[in-house]
């Protein structure tokens, strides 16, 4: 069943043109001139219920603008979207009962209130049955380990503590879709990991659809099965995260721990990244050299105590997608 359907979704902003000099500034005050900025350029997208989607793109690609349209915060200039059967910008309040959102850069909790008061207010806003709310709150407080912070005003919490409360708050009303815009930005690895686990658990146990934007490779790899990459407001890649890695990740890294110094390494299709008496690190272009042959060559010519094979980091793959020549698509 479809969770999100988007057709030709477009957002153009009118941006005031800055005119030079004092006279220009005064003229702009009286008669401002505008130019057009295309933030989202006719996106088509379908997301099934229960999917975990990474919505990726470089800075300014139009990710947040798309999320804002899908959650009803912004009206599009053109195009159509349906989220759980609702038109987000026309039926925003009805949709709000069924979706949750987390904006890593912006708190949704009341800044001067402790999280427990925000939860309480939200339970009223979402008209939750008292017993359901209390049971859900108990479950989230336990999973996110929120007990020590529940009664501290949000302004006094650390970023990691606050973000755990933010995600818990977004889950309070058991939303069918979670929109996550950079949910782990600025967090340490332990908190990141915790948040990812809980989001995944919710996807697994409650079938929650996850729509994520993130620049964090770990978020993408651990949370999402599908990746859509947009650039200049248009989708330029749509496949599984696995396929994205397989297709674009044609080089592998091999790191050898050596028992004794070896000869200088040479093999067509493999590049030395580091070679010392005890370490040999290589990057293998698997389109030019088979891993089997490279490994056979290594064990034949070197005395190896340990070997690790790794994929390059996700950032490299995404950068690679942005840098691929595109057909059209410019703002
Ligand atoms: N209110 C606005 N008025 C004018 N231009 C805007 C407005 N909001 C966004 N834009 C522009 O639209 C483009 C897309 O912005 P958006 O915030 O959607 O990008 P993003 O992909 O989320 O980027 P980032 O990864 O940096 O968060 C940018 O060029 C931005 O400057």
Automatic annotation (TrEMBL):
GO terms for molecular function: ATP binding; ATP hydrolysis activity. The keyword Nucleotidyltransferase does not apply. The keyword Oxidoreductase does not apply. Keywords: ATP-binding, Nucleotide-binding, Transport. SMART domains: AAA. InterPro entries: AAA+_ATPase (IPR003593), ABC_transporter-like_ATP-bd (IPR003439), ABC_transporter_ATP-binding (IPR050763), P-loop_NTPase (IPR027417). Residues 24-257 form the ABC transporter domain. It comes from the Bacteria. This is ATP-binding cassette domain-containing protein. It comes from Paenibacillus cremeus.
């Amino acid at each position: 069943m479809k969770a999100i359907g988007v057709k030709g979704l477009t957002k153009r902003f009118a941006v005031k043109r800055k005119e030079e000099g004092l006279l220009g500034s005064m003229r702009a005050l009286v008669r401002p001139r505008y130019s057009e900025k295309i933030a989202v350029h006719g996106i088509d997208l379908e997301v099934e219920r229960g999917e975990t989607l990474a919505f990726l793109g470089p800075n300014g690609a139009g990710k947040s603008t798309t999320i804002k349209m899908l959650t009803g915060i912004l009206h599009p200039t053109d195009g159509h979207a349906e989220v759980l059967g609702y038109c987000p910008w026309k039926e925003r309040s009805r949709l709000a009962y069924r979706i949750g959102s987390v904006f890593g850069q912006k708190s949704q909790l009341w800044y001067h209130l402790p999280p427990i008061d925000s939860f309480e207010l939200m339970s009223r806003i979402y008209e939750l049955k008292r017993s359901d709310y209390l049971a859900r709150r108990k479950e989230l407080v336990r999973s996110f380990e929120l007990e020590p912070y529940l009664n501290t005003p949000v302004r006094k919490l650390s970023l990691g503590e606050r973000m755990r409360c933010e995600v818990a708050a977004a889950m309070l009303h058991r939303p069918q879709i979670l929109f996550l815009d950079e949910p782990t930005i600025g967090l340490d690895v332990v908190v990141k990991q915790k948040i990812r686990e809980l989001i995944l658990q919710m996807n697994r146990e409650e079938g929650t659809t996850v729509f994520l934007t993130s620049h964090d490779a770990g978020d993408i790899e651990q949370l999402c099965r599908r990746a859509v990459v947009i650039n200049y407001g248009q989708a330029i890649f749509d496949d599984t995260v696995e396929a994205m890695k397989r297709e674009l990740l044609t080089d592998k890294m091999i790191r050898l721990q050596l028992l004794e110094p070896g000869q200088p390494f040479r093999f067509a299709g493999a590049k030395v990244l580091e070679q010392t008496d005890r370490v040999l690190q290589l990057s293998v272009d698997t389109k030019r050299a088979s891993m089997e042959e490279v490994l056979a060559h290594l064990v034949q010519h070197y005395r190896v105590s340990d070997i690790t094979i790794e994929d390059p980091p996700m950032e490299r793959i995404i950068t690679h997608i942005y840098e691929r020549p595109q057909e059209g698509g410019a703002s």
